[in-house]
């Protein structure tokens, strides 16, 4: 699978936005750049048709989040807004690649700011600092930085190139997906893959390969994608807690299940969908479910 096949994954080493960290502490220099500002609220973004809507008015640098510079030297910002917004989940699949990255970056940072109004050490109020890329405790001047929760997402395969998908009881009827879970403290990505696959579907992995990654700001995660090759496919068994059912699919079985509507796919925005499409060999259409 190619990384450019993942909707929110970086399409190259340089995704088109230089985060320009040196400007976060030099507001005078930052003010000299032409700017575009995106309104963000409640996990949504302001749009105009099928693209993001940016204000080109000079921003209040004490109240906005600096995201970075594009290749033309335009500074991008995010700010808390009011009014009607389009959910990032609903809108991101329509955006050009650069706008997807801008939107994910903006929503992730705004989510963090909204959930950290107080210092976790002393409980005092915090204020934005570093052009919105940190917060400062008003009492002891301790600087707080955004955190991203790492999760692994895994496409399980066997030696016959079948894939194993699972479903949760809370999902809509027919919805199946890949396996995923958060990385625990002191755990490598590879160890998390092995553990999650073994816990959720009973499979011992004999080979683990990295596929790509996707920012997932719902509210503050990054999905790190792998494929895991099953040592013994016959051991597949749902844990009965998180996963209620697992099923192996060849490409022919997968096509029959999706064509008939028996199998409902993960949403097109998700890395899970792109992993499945990468295995299948083409972009898939048809029903999909969010939950």
Automatic annotation (TrEMBL):
<dbReference type="GO" id="GO:0035529">
    <property type="term" value="F:NADH pyrophosphatase activity"/>
</dbReference>
<dbReference type="InterPro" id="IPR049734">
    <property type="entry name" value="NudC-like_C"/>
</dbReference>
<comment type="similarity">
    <text>Belongs to the Nudix hydrolase family. NudC subfamily.</text>
</comment>
<feature type="domain" description="Nudix hydrolase">
    <location>
        <begin position="146"/>
        <end position="277"/>
    </location>
</feature>
<dbReference type="InterPro" id="IPR015376">
    <property type="entry name" value="Znr_NADH_PPase"/>
</dbReference>
<dbReference type="GO" id="GO:0006742">
    <property type="term" value="P:NADP+ catabolic process"/>
</dbReference>
<dbReference type="InterPro" id="IPR000086">
    <property type="entry name" value="NUDIX_hydrolase_dom"/>
</dbReference>
<keyword id="KW-0460">Magnesium</keyword>
<keyword id="KW-0520">NAD</keyword>
<dbReference type="GO" id="GO:0005777">
    <property type="term" value="C:peroxisome"/>
</dbReference>
<keyword id="KW-0378">Hydrolase</keyword>
<dbReference type="GO" id="GO:0019677">
    <property type="term" value="P:NAD+ catabolic process"/>
</dbReference>
<dbReference type="InterPro" id="IPR050241">
    <property type="entry name" value="NAD-cap_RNA_hydrolase_NudC"/>
</dbReference>
<dbReference type="InterPro" id="IPR020084">
    <property type="entry name" value="NUDIX_hydrolase_CS"/>
</dbReference>
<dbReference type="Pfam" id="PF09297">
    <property type="entry name" value="Zn_ribbon_NUD"/>
</dbReference>
<protein>
    <recommendedName>
        <fullName>NAD(+) diphosphatase</fullName>
        <ecNumber>3.6.1.22</ecNumber>
    </recommendedName>
</protein>
<dbReference type="GO" id="GO:0046872">
    <property type="term" value="F:metal ion binding"/>
</dbReference>
<dbReference type="InterPro" id="IPR015797">
    <property type="entry name" value="NUDIX_hydrolase-like_dom_sf"/>
</dbReference>
<dbReference type="Pfam" id="PF00293">
    <property type="entry name" value="NUDIX"/>
</dbReference>
<dbReference type="GO" id="GO:0005829">
    <property type="term" value="C:cytosol"/>
</dbReference>
<keyword id="KW-0479">Metal-binding</keyword>
């Amino acid at each position: 699978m190619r990384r450019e096949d993942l909707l929110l994954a970086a399409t190259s080493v340089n995704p088109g936005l230089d985060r320009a960290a040196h400007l976060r502490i030099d507001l005078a220099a930052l003010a000299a750049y032409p700017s575009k500002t995106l309104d963000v609220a409640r996990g949504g973004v302001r749009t105009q048709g099928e693209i993001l809507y940016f204000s080109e008015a000079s921003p209040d640098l004490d109240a906005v989040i600096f995201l970075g510079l594009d290749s033309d030297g335009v500074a991008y910002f995010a700010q808390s807004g009011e009014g009607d917004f389009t959910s990032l989940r609903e809108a991101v699949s329509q955006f050009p690649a650069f706008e997807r990255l801008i939107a994910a970056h903006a929503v992730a940072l705004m989510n963090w700011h909204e959930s950290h109004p107080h210092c976790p050490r002393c409980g005092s109020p915090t204020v934005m600092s570093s052009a919105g890329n940190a917060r400062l405790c008003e009492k002891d001047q301790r600087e707080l930085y955004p955190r991203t929760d790492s999760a692994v997402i895994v496409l399980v395969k066997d030696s016959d190139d079948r894939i194993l998908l699972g479903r949760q009881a809370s999902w809509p009827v027919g919805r199946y997906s890949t396996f995923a879970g958060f990385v625990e403290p002191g755990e490598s990505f590879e160890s998390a893959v092995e553990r999650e696959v073994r816990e959720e579907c009973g499979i011992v992995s004999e080979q683990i390969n990295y596929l790509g990654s996707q920012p997932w700001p719902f509210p503050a995660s990054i999905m790190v994608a792998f494929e895991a090759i099953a040592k013994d496919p016959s051991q597949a068994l749902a844990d009965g807690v998180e996963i209620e059912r697992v099923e192996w699919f060849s490409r022919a079985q997968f096509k029959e299940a999706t064509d008939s509507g028996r199998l409902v796919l993960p949403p097109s925005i998700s890395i899970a969908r792109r992993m499945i499409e990468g295995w299948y060999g083409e972009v898939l259409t048809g029903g999909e479910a969010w939950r």
